[in-house]
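Entry 14. Ran structure prediction on the chain below.
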Amino acid sequence: MGFEPIDERLEGFLRDILSRVDDCTGTADDIDFHALEYRALDELGFFADKTEYLDGTASVKPTYAAMTYFERKEEHERAPQPKKDFGTKVASMAGAFTGAAVKQFAD
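Output, structure tokens:
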């Protein structure tokens, strides 16, 4: 399973949540569950558990993926980017050759 980066706004909201995580309980409290970023992170599966309160705040327990998101992002950014595969290069060269041949015969 590859790494998929999330939107910068979601990253900021996630960073705030992770900074609030209690080391003993593994939960972050007083999170605004009305925020669009909260809902998006929830839909993406970044919360293992959540409790939403009447005052508009939530207590969330981030998943392992959420807790390690920024480490995985760093690793992904440091990894060498894959080069074009051989088939793509051949198709590109063949297209250029065919285009040149057609142009020559058309003249």
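The mean pLDDT is 85. Will compare against last week's run tomorrow.
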